[in-house]
Each structure stands twice: as C-alpha cells, then as structure tokens.
Design brief:
The structure holds two protein chains of two kinds.
Chain A: H1 6-45, H2 51-72, H3 75-105, H4 121-136, H5 145-153, H6 155-158, H7 166-170, H8 183-219, H9 226-257, H10 275-281, H11 284-295, H12 305-323, H13 327-348, H14 351-358, H15 362-384, H16 388-398, H17 419-426, H18 435-451, H19 456-460, H20 481-500
Helix pairs in contact in A: 1-5, 2-3, 2-4, 2-5, 3-4, 8-9, 8-20, 9-15, 9-16, 9-18, 11-12, 12-13, 13-15, 15-16
Chain B: H1 2-31, H2 51-55, H3 57-67, E1 72-76, H4 78-83, E2 97-99, H5 107-120, E3 126-131, H6 155-166, H7 169-181, H8 215-218, H9 228-243, E4 247-252, H10 262-274, E5 277-279, E6 293-294, E7 298-299, H11 301-313, E8 325-327, H12 332-345, H13 348-352
Parallel strand pairs in B: 1-2, 1-3, 3-4, 4-5
Antiparallel strand pairs in B: 5-8, 6-7
Helix pairs in contact in B: 1-7, 3-5, 3-6, 5-9, 9-10
The chains are: A mainly alpha, B alpha/beta.
Chain lengths: 511, 355
C-alpha cells in the first residue's frame, strides 16, 4: 500500500489509528503492539501477499538468532545471522546481476528468470542486521517476540526507512504506559504527513514525466542537447529529493500520530557546502548505518589517511550497490566515494586553512554550495540512467558536446513562441510543446525552495538525532488558524494532484 | 499553564483538521460526482445534476465495465456516443446494453476499454464496434485520455486508480452548485451536444440539428496517417473476442463528410483482412439528408437505428437499400471501386475536403 493512495489515507490509516488507541485503552501495550503488527502485515500484504511469508520467516529466523546471541554471544552466530540476511538480499536483489556478470566474464549465455524484489527488503535487512549487532554488543536484552516483531514491521518505517535501531524505537513502546491519543502528536503528525504528501504528489510526481521522458530518450540512444540534458538532470535531482524526503516526512508524521518519534532522514541536503556535508544531510539513517557497520569496521579514520580513503571508497561502492543491482549504481557510489576522498584530501592539506578563513564570505559559501550541488546533480545522471551509454549521452549533453538543439521532435525551445503561449505553458505541467519553459520555471522555483526556505523539521521544530538549526522562527508550526489553512490547502491540493496524476510509488521502494 | 494551553490548542487544531476531512469525505461520498460508488442516492438540489459525468466520462464508463454486468457492449468514438441508443428497439433482444463509446476515442483507447470489459464481463454475448477512419489516426497515438496502459483490470485496481475521483472536491463543488442552481449539465459542452448516460438514449439539442458545420468539423482530420499500432490493436481486440467466443460486429460509421483517398482505402483493406464489416461511410441516400445528422461529424439516433437494423438484421432490414455495404476480404477491392464511383458522383466540394 502506498502512503499516497486513497485507500491508505482514508481507509487504512483511520482504522489503524482508531484500533491502536482503542486497544491501548482496553488491554494496554500488548494488544496495542499486536494491533500494530497485524495492521503492518496487512499494509505489507496489500502489495503482494506471498512476500508476507518472507518477511515473517526472516523475522522469526532473526529473532531465534538474536536469542542465541543473547545466550552465548558467539561471533560465529552473529556472522551466520548477517550472512543469512545478506544472502536473502543477494538472492532477491543481486542474483541476476551476479550471474549475468559472471556469465559475461565466462562468455556464457544464461537466462535468469526475473524475480520480483520484495518491497522494502533492502531496508528491513539492514534493520535486522543492526538488531543482531546491537544484541551481540549487549545493547539489546529484551526477549519478547512481540516487541521484536513490532520493531521490524512497524509500518511507517517498514518499506523505506528511516532505518532505526531497536532500543531508540522500542523504548517508546513503554509496556507500562500504552499510547493514548495526544493533540500534539496528532497535530505534528498530520502536519508532517501533509508536508510530505505535498512534496511527493505535488512536486515529485509533477516533475516525474519530464525526467522520465528525457531519460527515456537517452536510454533509447538519442544524445540530449545542452538544455535538455540540464533539464533532465535538474528535474530528476528535484524529483528524487522531493520524492524521498516527502516519503520520510510522511513516515515521521505517521509514526508521530501513533506517538512514536522516528529519526530524521533529510536535513536540506541541497544546502550542503561540501560532499561530506551532503552525506550528513542526505538519507541520514543509511549514511549512519554504512558508517557504523561498514566504514568503521573497515578501519574508519583511525589508521591513516590512505586507509581511510580506501575504506571510504569501499563503503560508498557498497552504498551504491545497495541502491540497485546495476553497474550505474556502483559507479554512482564510486563517484561519490571519489568526491568524498577529494573532500577529505582537501581538508588534510594547508589549503583547508585558507578555505576555513573564507567560510563566512557569502561569495565563497555560494561557490561551495554551487560546486556541491552541481557535483551531486551530475552524479544523479549515473543513478537514473539504465546504462553507461545513456549516462554518457546526458553527461556529454551537460557540457554542450551534443550541441544546443533539441533531440525530442516535439520539444520546441524558446524561439518563435508567442508570449501568451509561454504564460499558458506555465500552467500546463505536461504540455510537451513548450515544455522547457514550464520545467525551467518549476526548477527555478524549486532551487529557491531547497536553497532558501526552511525544511520540514525546521518548520516543525523537530529534534530527533539532529539539532534543529533554524533562523525561521516565524515560520514555525503553531496550532493556529494560519497553519490550519496551510495544512488544509496543502492536503486538498495534494488530493487533487492524486486525482489528476497517476499515483506513482516512491522511488526508494524499488531499492 | 502555557504548556497546557498549547496542548489544548494542538488538540483542537487536530480535531478541526480531522473533522473537516471527515466532513469533506462524507460530502464527497454523498454527492458521488462520478457515480463511482455502487450505492447512489439522488438528492435534489445536491447531486441531481452532475457535470463531472459529462466532462470526464471515460473513468465513469470504465468503472461501470468493472463493476456491472452487461450482455451487449457498444464501443466506438463520439459518433457512437451520440448516435447509438442502447435502448433502441433493435437491441431489445440483446439483453442489457451499455454504450461505452469514448469522445474522440481512438483504437488504442478502445482496445484498453475492451480489455477491461473482457477482464470483468462474465455474460458478454455481443460487441458492436462503431469505428471511423480517424479512429486509426497516428497523431492520436500518444493520447490515452483516462485509460493508462499500466492500469490493472480488476475492479480493485481500478478503484485504486480512480477512487480519487470520488474525492474530487472540484467535481463535488460543481455538482452541488449545478444542482442547487438547476443548471443543465449538458450545456457544459461547447458544441451543445450532451454526453448521454451510457444506459439511456442520447439526446441532441434540436437547435443544432440540420446545421452541418462542414469544414470546421473536417479540419482536424485534414491530414493524418494510419497508425500501425492502432491497426495492430484492432486486430488483437478482435482476436481476443474470438478466443472468448463473443460475437463482434464492426461498422464504419457515416457522417456528412467522408474519408476518401489512399489512406482511407488502406485502412478499409486492413479492417477487411481482420473481420468482415459494414461500411456506411460513403455518399448514400441517408448521408444525403442533413437533418439526420448533428453537425458534419455526428449522426442522430435515427441514423443510429438504421445502422443497428442493418448490422443486426443484415440485408433483410427495412432500411434504404444503398445504406450500408457488407465488406469481406474477398470483395474489398470491388467495394472500394463501387464507393469510389459514388464519391465521383458526389458533390465536388465534399471530395476536395477529403484526405
């Protein structure tokens, strides 16, 4: 089930919430947990009932392994647990990729039937691994299957994170104090959800047709012109950001309605002034997972710069591969690894002292912001393209190597378009006759949004995992008439977008 | 004290939001602007006039096909919508009849609509397919109005896609305003043609009968190429009905202007290769009577009844002898020759406007 679907918003969510609080009133925490597990299983099974067996099976296996670890704390059990989880992920997600590449190396023809990737497997696999490590390190001592099942299946974070650890999440389900509906939780939850919904269906889904069409053109081996290439990159860069940060806001909002605080996943990543800064702001819980479970075990920053850079590169290559079974994702991770390495090298040199002294200068800050933003945007080309050849068609277009003309036949650039048509096109989101005008205007507006305006947590003054730094005190959410009007306006605008546009799944559902 | 007040304010804020949402949802369900909900109650002054049905009829018809059962389905373009009456006496023997014609319907859309019908209709016996040469217009390939290729076919899938229409507040508002002010929803159509209920007889405004608009109606079809994708869709669609042993009768619809020339000939040949069909799209004694047509491009239900008589009863029907020719792959060339002679004899002005 998608958060941005009518059956979720108007049927599933109200029933889940009402049942949860009623259960808490009658039977306390146990019934509440049982209810949330049942609701989460229905939520998951709505996509494909078969895969509920996979979810429950791997949940039970991990619970048993966790119990063994609590008893004996053998490293072998931990390794076996991690291997089990990674094998499942590898089977469903990387089987085809691995076999195809081996077959290509051995010059063999192999036909591999395609498997449907179980929804959220990349996320709940990481969560289970984090649980086993936490048990091994003695951070988790609870032996309740019910609580463990609630930890894994809690539907606001089941499909695409945020990736959470057992203790911070489950200590909020206090066995002695079942959750009761609270005005602040509901208010903050609703506002977060509405902001996320507007980001997803109002912005990301409106941009998706542009990005889809331009990338599809490149995938069909048609080189994109300069303007088209930039439009492809910007529209996709904004689409993926508003899609995933919209999802994360919705997840945080949903959990908050149930009285649970999930960690933040985004902190205005396009405001980052370096690649290091970007990865502290983009998909924060994944970055932390990779840091804690890959980068630091590989040595981290404690064994000299060379080893640190190698660890960084390996971590980012794995991070890229986690996003999808394709070389484009691996190379995307590798590019980010290289950019991070360059950033660390810069910091290690004397030049960094000069740059530190310039930090307050607006021009220098703008330069850093622009350089980071452009690097990230260029890297998205690899992330979104289906092949390296397609990525090359767009990347070469970005530097004007394919000329300035249009690859798409119905893609009319500015020349000879009357003014009233230009204005009209601003209101026709999918008008392909003068599409660059619409999309360029949207992109310019979105640059303002991502660079200048406060983000969701700044608006909501939300602090979990991150201190909220906001100069936007006047823009903070308050339970007053103005914010009521904003919430209602955003909600019904989002609903009308859901009526008029195709309902699209979240981009990260595929990872 | 301050904190307690803030909590109370937050509680009120949330309750107001939830109450407003609940009110909007209840109102939407009550007004039911697209009639997508199975239980439908007409409340005068609230939802007895529903403009949404007229300006967005595709999903309405699709949802009907997924949720209700019919014995006979009529597919086609706006000509079928305006001209074929599902309550016609000629269709009395064919059970419950539903007109699922689409405005501007092209073959890919018709095929998609037909797939939904095949997936959901259990008692379907007869399909009438009223097409014209422009149904295969290549320039219309990218347009799939309300029928996206990716949509599922079951009722649940459809509701997931179109369920939002139940909560389309714009449509709800228009229904309430129109009902309260007693506006006629059909007047929303600029050309004065009402889009009828798929189960009821079409009604054209009398003032636009007898007034062929000629070149204006022909202009969109002045230049077009046949679409291979649409011809393939037509063939696929017929094959699927054959596999299910459902009878299909195809006819080329008449109008005040005709499709002539190499493009039209090629399409006629392709149709005949797939299935024998009835051709009404050439100058004949019925098309010579402007009062039987609505503008230049659409025919009235009087012509529709003649078509149904011919298509359902064959040559024995009581209709003008020159109205309708049964064409098979064996006699298509003779047919083309015969209608070419008729074109030659027809008004030169009509000929010059043909593609």
């Amino acid at each position: 089930m998608l958060y941005n679907s009518f059956e979720f918003i108007f049927v599933f969510l109200p029933l889940a919430l009402v049942g949860y609080f009623v259960a808490g009133r009658f039977n306390g925490n146990t019934l509440q947990l049982s209810w949330i597990i049942a609701a989460s299983c229905i939520f998951y099974a709505f996509w494909d009932p078969i895969y509920i067996f996979l979810l429950v099976g791997s949940l039970l296996a991990n619970f048993i392994l966790g119990q063994q670890l609590m008893k004996h704390r053998h490293k072998l059990v931990l390794v076996a647990g991690i291997a089990l989880n990674v094998s499942l992920l590898a089977y469903f997600k990387y089987r085809g990729f691995i076999v195809t590449n081996f077959a290509a190396l051995a010059d063999l023809q192999v036909e591999i039937p395609k498997l449907v990737l179980p929804l959220g497997i990349s996320f709940f696999t990481f969560q289970k691994i984090a649980y086993l490590v936490d048990v091994y390190k003695g951070r988790v001592i609870e032996r309740s299957l019910l609580r463990y099942a609630a930890f894994i299946t809690f539907f606001p974070q089941l499909i695409a994170g945020p990736i959470v650890h057992y203790v911070p999440l489950m200590r909020q389900f206090d066995p002695k104090r079942p959750h009761v509906p609270r005005g602040t939780d509901l208010g903050i939850g609703i506002m977060f959800f509405v902001i996320g919904l507007a980001k997803k269906v109002g912005i990301a889904d409106n941009l998706a047709p542009y990005a889809d069409r331009l990338f599809a053109t490149a995938n069909a081996s048609v080189p994109l012109g300069f303007f088209e290439a930039w439009l492809a990159v910007l529209t996709y860069g904004f689409q993926i950001y508003f899609d995933f940060s919209g999802y994360s806001d919705m997840a945080i909002g949903l959990a908050r309605m149930f009285g649970i605080r999930l960690p933040l996943n985004f902190d205005s990543p396009y405001k980052a002034r370096s690649i290091i800064d970007f990865w502290r702001r983009w998909h924060i819980t994944l970055s932390r997972f990779l840091r804690d479970y890959v980068y630091i075990p590989l040595g981290g920053s404690h064994h000299g710069l060379t080893l640190q850079l190698c660890a960084l590169l390996v971590t980012m290559l794995l991070g890229g591969l986690w996003h999808g079974a394709n070389w484009t994702f691996v190379i995307w991770g590798g590019v980010h690894g290289l950019l991070l390495a360059i950033n660390h090298l810069w910091r290690a040199t004397a030049l960094s002292d000069i740059s530190e002294s310039l930090l307050g200068a607006p021009a220098y800050n703008a330069l850093c912001l622009a350089a980071t933003f452009l690097s990230v945007m260029a890297a998205w080309v690899l992330f979104r393209s289906q092949s390296l050849a397609a990525a090359d068609f767009i990347l070469s277009g970005l530097i004007g190597a394919n000329g300035f003309g249009a690859a798409l036949p119905d893609y009319v650039l500015l020349h000879g378009v009357p003014a009233h048509k230009l204005i009209q096109s601003l209101f026709e989101t999918q008008s392909w006759t003068i599409v660059p005008i619409t999309a360029t205007a949207i992109c310019a507006g979105l640059l303002f949004v991502v660079w200048v305006l406060p983000n969701s947590q700044e608006i909501m003054s939300y602090r979990v995992l991150l201190p909220v730094r906001s100069r936007w005190r006047f823009a903070r959410w308050r339970p007053n008439a103005a914010w009521f009007a904003i919430a209602v306006g955003l909600f019904y605008w989002s609903l009308s977008c859901m009526v008029m546009l195709d309902i699209r799944p979240f981009t990260y559902f595929a990872f | 004290m301050k904190i307690a007040a803030a909590y109370a304010a937050a509680r009120m804020w949330s309750l107001f939001f939830l109450a407003l949402t609940l009110a909007c949802v209840t109102l939407s369900l009550l007004v039911n602007p697209y009639r997508l909900l199975p239980i439908y109650v007409t409340i005068p002054g609230l939802n007895d006039v529903q403009p949404a049905l007229y300006y967005f009829p595709g999903p309405t018809r699709l949802f009907d096909l997924a949720n209700r059962q019919f014995d006979t389905l009529i597919f086609g373009s706006s000509r079928v919508v305006y001209g074929i009456d599902p309550l016609s006496p000629h269709l009395r023997l064919y059970g419950k009849v539903y007109n699922s014609g689409l405005l501007g319907g092209q073959m890919l859309e018709i095929e998609k609509m037909s797939e939904h019908a095949l997936a959901n209709q259990r008692h379907l016996r007869l399909v009438l397919l009223g097409i014209d040469i422009a149904t295969f217009d290549k320039t219309q390939e990218g347009r799939l109005l309300a029928l996206n290729q990716e949509y599922g076919k079951s009722s649940r899938e459809l509701f997931r896609v179109y369920g939002g229409l139940v909560l389309d507040l714009r449509a709800v508002g228009e229904a309430i305003v129109s009902s309260a002010l007693r506006r006629d929803a059909r007047s929303f159509r600029l050309d004065g043609l009402g889009i009828p209920d798929p189960l009821a007889a079409p009604q054209a405004y009398p003032e636009i009968l007898n007034k062929p608009s000629g070149p204006r109606a022909i202009a969109p079809y002045a230049r077009f190429e046949p679409s291979q994708a649409m011809l393939a869709a037509f063939s696929r669609m017929i094959d699927r009905y054959r596999q299910r042993h459902i009878e299909v009768r195809v006819f080329l619809t008449p109008a005040q202007f005709h499709f002539r020339g190499s493009t039209a000939e090629r399409i006629r040949r392709e149709i005949a290769q797939v299935i024998p069909y009835w051709d009404f799209d050439y100058p004949n004694s019925v098309t010579d009577e402007p009062e039987l047509f609505i503008g230049a491009g659409h025919f009235s239900t009087r012509v529709g009844d003649l078509i149904l008589a011919r298509v359902l009863s064959g040559t024995g029907a009581a209709v003008p002898a020159d109205f309708g020719a049964y064409v098979t792959q064996h006699d298509i060339e003779q047919h083309l020759q015969r209608i070419e002679e008729r074109f030659e004899r027809a008004e030169p002005s009509t000929e010059q406007q043909l593609p």
